[in-house]
Specification:
Two copies of one chain form a homodimer.
Chain A (H helix, E strand, L loop, with lengths): L18 E8 L5 H14 L10 H7 L12 E8 L17 E6 L18 E14 L4 E11 L8 H15 L4 E7 L3 H9 L3 E2 L3 E7 H9 L2
Parallel strand pairs in A: 5-6
Antiparallel strand pairs in A: 1-2, 1-3, 2-4, 4-5
Protein name (chains A, B): Probable acetyltransferase NATA1-like
GO molecular function (chains A, B): N-acetyltransferase activity
Pfam families (chains A, B): Acetyltransf_1
Chain lengths: 224, 224
């Protein structure tokens, strides 16, 4: 049944309306400059720039292994947006991951103050990313995924993009018959805590997260 | 300078004394029955048998990938003990990991009530294991290791074996120029908390550990 008046403020049938076309695809080595900027922006948001030392070349040297396929090692899915339809591309025929697309209808024209910094191709802008890799549960006797980062640029928040990225990972986990998806959230990030709890995820309260890094790691690795 | 009297209660020079020879080596598919028993024992110790569903065949189907080398994917190092010297074996010439050995001098002859269950070869008994795999820090722009489990059977505790296993991992992390080693500890396990803190590791107090598993994972992976 057709909806009654008032007419929709988001005219789905008008291609010239305020539509945002989005796409999640596997990142490639040529995305590293954008990925590096997104990671740095996330470090600023998390007030952890003192821990940030990644460079484009350190990322380049350690990501995108030529011998291990995505999902079986470190994997990055990128979220892009465009005000026009995405043209057909080689991503569409990638046998490892078929891009996920969605159209978002907006009430107002979209303004991205960082459009030039995150411009991918003519009409396409990089919006966010999710970085994850396999982990393993000996109790379940099978792998899972650990989500290292999920980040959406500020002007694109509260539009469902975080959930799109997260569900791209859980969808793959279910497809691969993996047992669980794990990640950590900073305790002051109440929006993130709420976001994940609303999706049915639970905090494992009895876990103390340990880390050995820097000099203590060097010392431990050289003794014994 | 030689130590003064009293004479050492652990006669290092007497091969017929109470010595325990130990070896850390890469696990192989034929170790799965022992690994499965160790994991179950750990689940009992952690009071988490309700989460234990691994079988020998689920472990067998998901560990020891033929295409990815140890340390680049899920990896298990086994600790074995023997009252006699380990004979020369193929493990000694494994280019991926040269076994780490140590001799422990004991005041009394060693009694292992589970010797038959964990017997490997004639004189060799499986004592414990560490299970770990690569993780990735986008802030550091490089990989690290995540330690999923470290377990030593009860009668072998308080003899330095946990540290031997842990340092085998940190040593490899340093060798591979990895940035950090992460793991979680159950908050009631005060011995484990103390053990790791004494090694210079720190608890990342602001991390809330999230997990999505079972039905909520299935639901999340099938929506969207």
């Amino acid at each position: 049944m057709a909806p009654a008046a008032p007419p929709s403020p988001t005219p789905e049938t008008t291609p010239s309306g305020h539509q945002l076309f989005t796409r999640i695809r596997l990142a490639t080595p040529s995305d590293i400059p954008h990925i590096h900027k997104l990671i740095h922006q996330m470090a600023v948001f998390e007030r952890l720039t003192h821990l940030f030392s990644a460079t484009e070349s350190s990322l380049s040297a350690t990501l995108f292994s030529p011998t291990v396929q995505p999902f079986h090692s470190f994997t990055i899915l990128l979220l892009e947006a465009s005000t026009t339809l995405f043209p057909v591309s080689t991503f569409d025929s990638n046998p490892l991951f078929k891009p996920l697309t969605e159209v978002v209808n907006l009430r107002l024209p979209f303004e991205d103050p960082e459009r030039d910094t995150f411009k991918s191709t003519d009409d396409v802008t990089v919006v966010g990313f999710v970085m994850f890799f396999p982990n393993y549960s000996t109790f379940l006797g099978k792998p899972g995924f650990y989500v290292e980062n999920l980040y959406v640029r500020e002007c694109y928040r509260r539009m469902g993009f975080g959930k799109m990225l997260f569900c791209a990972v859980t969808k793959e986990a279910v497809k691969m018959k993996y047992g669980r998806v794990d990640w950590v959230v900073l305790d002051w990030n109440v929006n993130a805590l709420r976001f994940y709890q609303e999706m049915g995820a639970e905090i494992v309260e009895e876990y103390k997260f340990f880390r050995l890094t820097g000099k203590p790691l060097q010392a431990s690795g050289h003794t014994h």
